[in-house]
Amino acid sequence: MESGRLMDYYDDYSPYMEINLMKMEDGYPDTNSGEKCPHLYRCSTCQSDEVVFIKE
After folding, report:
1. Segment (H or E) for 20
2. Are 30 and 50 contacting, i.e. CB atoms less than 8 angstroms apart?
3. Which end of the chain, N or C, is less packed with Cβ atoms under 10 Å?
4. Domain residue ranges of the chain, discontinuous segments joined by +
5. Are 23 and 43 in contact, with CB atoms under 8 Å apart?
6. Interval 2-54: pLDDT, tens
7. Contact at 8 Å (CB) between 22 and 37?
8. What's the helix, strand, coil split of the chain in %, to 5?
């Protein structure tokens, strides 16, 4: 199950911050180019989380 952008879970204000600004803070070097965006996915069976990079 897709749970949204990973950066939206950093703190209470993350979902409201500028996306390009958050990309510089997310710790993933490939996201600054604008080609990939880390999203959080959760397994509905075991409830484990995984970061998946999707194309923007």
Report:
1. helix 19-25
2. no
3. N
4. 2-55
5. no
6. 887 777 777 777 767 777 666 666 666 666 566 788 889 999 899 999 988 88
7. no
8. 35, 30, 35
Question: In this structure, is the dihedral angle defined by the CA atoms of residues 43, 48, 30 and 11, taken in order, positive or negative?
Answer: positive
Q: What is the reported pTM?
A: 0.61
Check: CB of residue 40 under 8 Å from CB of residue 6.
yes
Q: For 27, left (φ over 0), alpha (ψ -120 to 50), or beta?
A: left
Alpha-carbon distance 28 to 22, whole Å? Answer: 11
d(CA 18, CA 25): 11
